[in-house]
Amino acid sequence: MHEMAFAIPYSSSFLSLLLFSLLLLSSTNAQTYKNISLGSSFTTQDKNPFWVSPSGEFAFGFQNVEPDGFLLAIWFDKIPDKTIVWSANRNNLVREGSKVEFTADGQLILQDSNGETKWKANILAGARVSYAAMLDTGNFVVASSDSAHEWESFDEPTDTILPMQTFVRGDTLLARHTAVNYSTGRFLFTLRADGNLVLYKTLLNSEVAGTPYWSTGTKGYGDQVIINQTGSMYLTASNGSILQMLFTSNLSTTNFYQRATLDYDGVFRYYVYPKLRHARQPETWSSLPNVMPLNICVNLKEDLGSGACGLNSYCAYDLGENIPTCHCPNGYSFFNADDVQRGCKRDFSPQDCGEETSEIDLFDFVEIESSDWVGNDFEYLIKDSEDTCKQACLADCFCAAIVYKSPNCFKKRYPLSNGLKDPSVLTKSFVKISKEITTLRTGGGESKKNNDSSPSLILIGSILLGSSVLLNFLFTFFAVVRSTNRETNTKAADQHQGMNLQRFPYEKLNKVTNGFKETLGRGAAGTVFKGILTLDGMEKHVAVKRLDNMVTKNDAEFQAEVNAIGRTNHRNVVQLLGFCNEAQHRLLVYELMTNGSLESFLFGESRLNWNRRMQIALGTARGLLYLHEECSNSIIHCDIKPQNILLDDSFTARISDFGLAKILKIDRIQTTTAIRGTKGYVAPEWFRHMPVTGKVDVYSYGILLLELVCGRKNFEAEAEDQNRMVLADWAYDCYSETKLHLLVENDEEAMNDMKRVEKYVMTAIWCIQEDPSLRPTMREVIKILEGTLGVSPPPDPSS
Questions:
Q1: Under 8 Å CB-to-CB from 720, ≥6 apart: which residues?
Q2: Which of 195, 246, 568, 752 is deepest in the core (most CB within 10 A)?
Q3: In terms of DSSP H, where are the helices of 498-595?
Q4: Per-residue confidence at 159, pLDDT binned at 50, 70, 90?
Q5: Residue 559 in contact with residue 496, Cβ under 8 Å?
Q6: 557/614 same-domain check
Q7: 107, 132, 156: which is the final residue of a domain?
Q8: Are residues 655 and 518 in the same domain?
Q9: Cβ neighbours for 400, distance < 8 A, ≥ 6 positions apart
Q10: Molecular function terms in GO for this entry (predicted)?
Q11: What pLDDT sits at residue 724?
């Protein structure tokens, strides 16, 4: 969308021309200085409290941004709204009578009306300062007699990058707080020291990077961000090659003002404004349609925090306008209408926890379609209707909302976090509210208080509250309902703590597999048999895995793993239907994949074609992303290999065999455990007693991806050329020597698709880096494979 998939090296002649052009431009800028001499100053009370550039397009001085608050800033001075692009004292406004002075000894100082220094340019001691100047590029400089810049505003950007401004490693942009509040906000954009260009939400009330929600994935390679004179913004490597194209306006800076700004809503946008007025051109800033990220509501979810909007509010994105908006559910209102990202508060008293059934009749729900509240789950209900879920939440004073996707729902604690409303969301939510303040039960706009006197509601409420007989009846009724629910939950526990799984008696599985006679496969953890079960009145072919080596395994651990795997529901993960945990018998019952494992279609004579293999690569990646990030508990599979990728009747990849999987709690991202996995696919950290994360699956996936590309095993002892024995080593050699065609020389389809071969091999090499921190996440892998994220040249995996 806004990146280029591969680095594009410049020729040496092009680099020379570019360097010459830049030197010429610098020379031109030097000649257009309107020098500011030592000892110059101005105050907020002067008629023109600023210094302008030679063309008058930019000004440096005071902007009145509050009734009595002034910002020392740089702005576009020839347009009506005087758009600010840099400021010195964003968190410390000064008052009427304040002064800017370029002192006789070459210091640039901002003083308040009492003479106290509020800001000072970081000019090194001993610098031989001669003059200052506001340049036509929007850069304010303090220079020596030979025009060397001792200090410049371009080196200390606030929230904007301008054409010809170079944004280098370590540079940071910090969004403003709101549209009219210029103090430091909640979002940060930086080119990290490792070369990755990243957007973060900051930690609360700080300028410290917190949750990342967008990046270029150029770790190790990104060097500079540049906006050139033709309106293109791109990230380059240290050799000058373009790594990723970020924005392209195709508009000359001669005719259009241009800027790239991290806005207060966390979206990084590129703006243009016509210098010459034209009837068909709006006299305003226009944003290019490709913003970063494309939908912050979907991209930004925090483990600790509120998401794109504040607590108890939800984010909705207008793709047409590229604008995220924050909303309160009905019954809630913003803490501060001028700062909606601060979140929402309840406009009613919370439910009393004094009695088990108290106040149930005083609360109801507002429904929000296509919405979710990520995090703060405390209970998961299985195979329940909407009404049952609502009743469970009404009866629980700790429950603030439920998120429902038939037939399951999550209970949510207060405050609600990571609120999201988007057409891509497959769940809907019900937020608990008091009946006294709203009659709206659908939609999900901003809170609206009930202005209707609702006489019938008041009458009913009076009768209910005034009749002790009826109250006693209701309390008895809800007690019976609660007791019934407990009995139901007890029965559900027999279906493994409410999971959508069946507990099968051993004798039944022995019967449906005909005494475990027809073997489908055999592995280290056990043997898989074919069977036929009657489920929901229909016969269904199943795969029954008998865990031969699980007899001594801790029962609680076995049940915990089955419980977690039973929650999985994804088209690229094999569905677990049930289990048996009876005496020494431990069996798992899966849906049967008619085409068996990928292994038989990858290395045998009936090898799948190139496009089918690439679809399997993408499907497997999506399944792993689901296990790592989208389950209620993250799952590290630990044994990704062709034998554990099954294919359904349409050859869709389905990850199977969780016999070695590790389940991570929501608040953990790593674990330590004994070595697991299969030789050739095992990540190096297993052997180094390092904490294990989802990156072990990324490593195994990288090996699998190479096998899918090349159509051969990761190790071939009988290879004629010993340099080709280990696939990973041979693949890197072919890549570094620009001989990738050797990997697929027997595959005509692949030979005709060498760009994709190159991209997939580069991705695989990144996945198998020995240092886990260098490997991409599965989310990044998918973006690369889908073409929405570029891939940088990978280093030697063992370097």
A1: none
A2: 246
A3: 506-512, 555-566
A4: very high
A5: yes
A6: no
A7: 156
A8: no
A9: 412, 413, 414, 415, 416, 431, 432
A10: ATP binding; carbohydrate binding; protein serine/threonine kinase activity
A11: 87
Helices (H) and strands (E) in the chain, counts: 14, 45
**265 in the same domain as 137:** no
- Alpha-carbon span 44 to 372, nearest angstrom: 49
CB 626 within 8 A of CB 574: no
Give the whole-angstrom CA distance, residue 369 versus residue 404. Answer: 10
**778 and 697 in contact (C-beta within 8 Å)?**
yes
3-state secondary structure 421-477: ECCCCCCEEEEEEECCCCCCCCCCCCCCCCCCCCHHHHHHHHHHHHCHHHHHHHHHH
* Per-residue model confidence as pLDDT tens digits over 169-213: 999 999 999 999 999 999 999 999 999 999 999 988 889 999 999
Q: Is the predicted pLDDT of residue 166 greater than 50, yes or no?
A: yes
Tokens of 626: 């689901």
Q: Residues 779, 632: one domain?
A: yes
Residue 121 lies in a domain: yes
Domain boundary among 294, 322, 353: 294
* Beta bridge partners of residue 236, listed in sequence order: 224, 242
**Calpha distance 307→300 (Å, rounded):** 6
421 Ramachandran zone, left/alpha/beta (phi>0; psi -120 to 50) = beta
Helix (H) or strand (E) holding 20: helix 12-31
Mean of per-residue pLDDT scores for the chain: 82
Tokens 């950007």: give the residue.
Answer: 157
Does an H or E element contain 244, and which? strand 242-248
For residue 624 the two structure tokens come to 């792993």
Does one domain contain both 85 and 228? Answer: no
782 band by pLDDT with thresholds 50, 70 and 90: very high
Q: 61: which strand partners?
A: 50, 73
- Find tokens 């508060």 and name the residue: 345
d(CA 293, CA 286): 17
Please tell me whether residues 149 and 194 are part of one structural domain: no
Does 305 map to a domain? no
Place of tokens 């241009």: 258
Strands (E), 275-388: 286-287, 314-318, 323-327, 332-334, 344-346, 363-368, 371-373, 377-381
Q: What span, in angstroms and rounded, lies between the C-alpha atoms of 704 and 760?
A: 11
Separation between Cα atoms, residue 31 and residue 234, nearest integer Å: 28
Domain assignment of residue 467, given as a range: 454-493
Residues 286 and 324 in one domain: no
What was the pLDDT predicted at 549?
Answer: 56
DSSP code of residue 175? E
Contact of 678 with 632, CB cutoff 8 Å:
no
Q: In the annotation, is 729 catalytic?
A: no
Domain total for the chain? 6
Q: What are the phi and psi torsion angles at 762 (to 5°)?
A: -60, -45
- In total, the chain counts a number of residues equal to 799
Q: What is the CATH number of the domain that holds 569?
A: 3.30.200.20
Q: What is the pLDDT of residues 417-431, one digit of tens each?
A: 999 999 989 999 999
Among 223, 339, 639, 657, which one carries the catalytic annotation? 639
DSSP for residue 796: P
Between residues 118 and 280, the one the model is more confident about: 118
**Same domain flag for 394 and 518:** no
**Could you tell me where the DSSP H helices lie in 340-467?**
386-394, 455-466
Q: What is the largest CA-CA distance in the chain?
A: 98
CATH number at residue 262: 2.90.10.10
**629: domain CATH number?**
1.10.510.10
Between CA 434 and CA 61 the distance in angstroms is: 52
Residue 591 CA to chain centroid, in angstroms?
Answer: 32
Confidence check: pLDDT of 444 > 50: no
Strand, coil or helix: what is 28? helix
What residues are paired with 140 via a beta bridge? 134
Residue 347 — pLDDT band, cuts 50, 70, 90?
Answer: very high
Over the stretch 682-728, which tens digit does the pLDDT of each residue have? 888 876 666 778 899 999 999 999 999 999 998 887 777 878 889 99
pTM: 0.55
Torsion angle of C-alpha atoms 632, 638, 642, 647, degrees rounded to 10: -20
* 167 part of a folded domain: yes
Distance CA 439, CA 459 (A): 15
